[in-house]
Design goal:
- 78% of the residues lie in helices and 0% in strands.
- The protein has 156 residues and is mostly helical.
- It has one domain.
């Protein structure tokens, strides 16, 4: 059996497009043998699941980076809008400016699209984390099944 546990180069996978990661993941999905009933096939399934987890981990890293960048972008834009709105209010009005929450609400309303993008990215990140955890559980179940077969076959 050919060992493919380290199928992907961690120094180069960041050069792949998301679509390429998805294509490779789909190939791995098709390699999983649901009917595996001997240890070697179950071990192959563990390798396939490990590679799936690696690809999911790559996507988790990508979405984590995107979420961080979007949060920073929204934070910076919000601060700029708040400052601009306060300055504009001061130029056009006399007296005490409204509470900060007013200017924050104005900034929020102007950044709705960016906030929606952030929410979408956070949602995708969460989905990958759940899928990663579920695949890890599936892999652990496969490992336990292998151990059970070994115990039945060899006694210890």
């Amino acid at each position: 059996m050919e060992d493919k546990l380290y199928m992907f180069n961690p120094f180069r996978i960041n050069e792949w497009k998301d679509e390429e990661v998805q294509e490779q993941f789909e190939l791995l999905l098709n390699q999983y043998d649901h009917e595996a009933d001997i240890v070697s096939l179950m071990a192959r399934n563990v390798e396939v699941l490990a590679n799936q987890m690696y690809l999911m981990g790559e996507m988790i890293a990508r979405y984590s980076e995107r979420v961080s960048n979007l949060k920073l972008e929204v934070k910076v834009k919000s601060a700029l809008i708040i400052q601009e709105e306060r300055n504009a209010w001061s130029r056009l009005n006399k007296g005490k400016a409204p509470a900060m929450t007013y200017f924050e609400a104005v900034a929020d309303s102007k950044l709705m699209e960016e906030r929606k993008q952030l929410i979408d990215c956070e949602t995708r990140l969460t989905r990958f984390k759940y899928a990663y955890n579920a695949t890890e559980e599936r892999m652990n179940a496969q490992k336990k099944k292998i151990e059970a077969f070994k115990y039945e076959e060899f006694g210890n």
